[in-house]
Amino acid sequence: MTAIYIIIAFFIALISGLGIGGGGLFATYLAIFTSLPQLSVQGYNLMFFIFCAGASVIAQIFRRKINMRVVALMALGGVAGSLLGSLLTLVLPEEYLRKLFGIMLVATGLISLRSAFMQKYSKKSSTYTDTKSNNAGESNNDRREKEDT
Fold first, then answer.
1. pLDDT (tens digit, 9 = 90+) per residue, 49-90?
2. What angle do CA 45, 46, 47 make, to 5 degrees?
3. Rounded Cα gap, residues 115 and 94, in angstroms
4. pTM of this prediction?
5. Cα–Cα distance between 3 and 131 in angstroms, integer?
6. Backbone conformation region of residue 27, classed left if phi is above 0, alpha if psi is from -120 to 50, else beta
7. Domain spans of the chain, in order of start
8. Three-state helix/strand/coil letters over the chain
């Protein structure tokens, strides 16, 4: 059984390294295919992604795709939210946490699907204007990244 855990962890970390959001996949795997209580699922998920995210962040920093000023601002809210969430796990029943986890997975999936469909249909109508208005051959994303730094 240990070999299966290693293989699953490898592929979920690979997906996470691509920026696809392996955290939801790992927690889902643990919640469905193991008999772990929800709090343990959350704990394993957090510990697993400390290491996976660390490796991915290093690669992104070297590629210069992270604006550290934005990260610092987001960290303020992130730390506060994490502390509050951790405190809530001490008082909320496990059954409630499991249901909340399921709702968040479904909501995240629906939002991702909506976003993918919106991008697909908005690219068709904006491709001409994006390239026409940009004489230097630079994409709108490249210009936005320069503005952020």
1. 888 877 777 877 787 777 888 888 999 998 999 899 889 888
2. 95
3. 31
4. 0.57
5. 49
6. alpha
7. 2-123
8. CHHHHHHHHHHHHHHHHCCCCHHHHHHHHHHHHCCCCHHHHHHHHHHHHHHHHHHHHHHHHHCCCCCHHHHHHHHHHHHHHHHHHHHHHHHCCHHHHHHHHHHHHHHHHHHHHHHHHHHHHHHHHHHHHHHHCCCCCCCHHHHHHHHHC
